[in-house]
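Data card: per-record layout.
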Amino acid sequence: LDLARSGVWALNRDDLLAAAIMARSALESAVKYVDVGRAISATLDSVRPPEFTKGIHTSSELEKLVVKAMYGTRLPGMEGENEEYKSVSILSSIGRISKIKYQDNISKHYEILCEIAHPNCWGQFLYIAGMTPGSRTGDEIRTLKFEAKKENIIVLAASVSAISWACATSVTACNMLEKSVRMFRQSSQLDI
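The structure for this 192-residue chain is written out next.
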């Protein structure tokens, strides 16, 4: 929620670049939370209570997922020799979430926000106030302003959508996990 709040503050002061960067980060955090939450929830929902109460059961896949989610990194040298500590690419998570019904716009918004954050073409166009031909063929003289243009509705829409989605989906994912844990406890008659 801190990222969303900072994104909204940036939108309120017409700082589209900061809003897009905060929106992208909020979207990444929510996507990762939803992706991991769905996997944990599916695992808990698939455990058969009678089998569970007969002994100790483990899930190496679930353990690997949780380790990567909690301790994964892509920093050189930090993950050690173990592939288990290499974090899952955010693009993989976005790909999975985008396949969910009505979530296909997530990847589109993410791509727009990445254009701003990297900065690629759109990140530079935010600040171009004017262009005139230069003295040589193909050259342009560009006038820059250090404030975002309000006409850039695509970036604004992607930022607002990403912030809204991140806030709403984090709550939904939390509710999903809580329900799975509750159902798991009830079906296995665990008192934890």
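Known properties of this structure: The longest strand covers residues 128-133. Helices lie at 2-12, 16-46, 49-52, 60-71, 90-98, 105-117, 121-125, 153-188.

See the next section for split statistics.
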